[in-house]
């Protein structure tokens, strides 16, 4: 069994520490060789699989209540209960899995709790063959670290080494990854290292895990201040656990722009270096993806030119372009988008802002990518995500507001682009269930504050308060469960996604050089492609004639394609061999 020889905990704030295990309390001793660390004395039992334990801390005046371990591997009784010792042992069957480089992948983002009726890792396993039939090659799980209750997006996690028990716990996650690998599907975990959730975060009683300031979601994680070496080691230990012991193929780093990352070596560089080390030792590639709205090339540029060297980053810009063009919404950050010209410019350059002015930010933003060293597959694009759907007052999806043709038009641009595409669960069949924000904090006051905070935010952005759903209501969560019964229209949308994903693979659209992409446009139409194959798209409600022709390969509708031109109806597209 792979277990530590004794209990130990980093608690530099404590004057004294006691271990609670097997119905008794045991004194812990300060470790003279490691500042701030405490180790169990000789009288304490050794850790064994399934053992429950907790710590009590003395602050110089009072003893705390029993607290879970900041490095807890499991919380079977929830985030406020004792921790559990979990062995690393698991009967893996993925020895033949060689992994998958990011280039050429189609990613599928999903929320474990609402993806299936069961709301568990096992429920995801039951849908893997469906995802394989769609053409998906990687799934990205929204965060699975423990949170309060059983209803949460996952970004309120507090125990960064553990797995939500209601989903199936650590063994359930391993079983999902093993089953995915058996079908040739990679698994990427979404992890949050910019803040701790507000409910059940006891780490501040142990040591300086956070520092002054706020991310808007919680206190700033201490990765640059005094004692930050141990906090960074805490993060890197979790990264190594997921990529090594759990066989995860990659991590998506939530909101890296919220990192207080002021040291000469970024925590992102350290994470990428660790991923490279695991890949070298296992022979299986590991992918590190950043969520960043900075339009900053350093995130994905190689270290040789001063970058952090991450594999890829989410790119909201293409989404924003498509959303504004087709929905007509221009509020908040969408005000910087809304024309075919802006979409064409973004497709040519990757970033919308390249040291240029942003109306929304009221300042100059971004920096141009060096396209000679940045292949476009390092940019991940999408028609929607959990954020772009869930951060709407009613959690309404594009399918609630767009026609089937408009939905598939957006998918065609993303799936025919040279960027790495990502789908959000249910979009591939035009799901009609919403995906609003939901939570189940154990503290009524936290639920009230969350509800009022979202009301204020949506009101500021111009939403009707009547449309804002109560995130703590069980009905809000239940409404988000996918309905897997399709009607004829949804079947057609699904078949369109299948066809577009198949064409992407057939024509090798995951190009290595964005400069090779040819993009032409007018005020209403756009073409994108190369000398072999091109996408022609009409972003208007009137027919247009596009000066590109050839042989029609695929369309969701029935465009008129001739040898030298194409007539597209409203919101119509055509994939054409020149």
Automatic annotation (TrEMBL):
It is found in: Cytoplasm. It catalyses: hydrolysis of (1->4)-alpha-D-glucosidic linkage in 4-alpha-D-[(1->4)-alpha-D-glucanosyl]n trehalose to yield trehalose and (1->4)-alpha-D-glucan. Keywords: Carbohydrate metabolism, Cytoplasm, Glycosidase, Hydrolase. The lineage of its organism: Bacteria, Bacillati, Actinomycetota, Actinomycetes, Mycobacteriales. It comes from Corynebacterium liangguodongii. The active site is at residues 254, 291. PANTHER family: 1,4-ALPHA-GLUCAN-BRANCHING ENZYME, MALTO-OLIGOSYLTREHALOSE TREHALOHYDROLASE. One of its GO terms (cellular component) is cytoplasm. It is an enzyme of class 3 (hydrolase). The gene is treZ. GO terms for molecular function: 4-alpha-D-(1->4)-alpha-D-glucanotrehalose trehalohydrolase activity. InterPro entries: DUF3459 (IPR022567), GH (IPR017853), GH13_cat_dom (IPR006047), Ig-like_fold (IPR013783), Ig_E-set (IPR014756), Trehalose_TreZ (IPR012768), Trehalose_TreZ_E-set_sf (IPR044901). This is Malto-oligosyltrehalose trehalohydrolase.
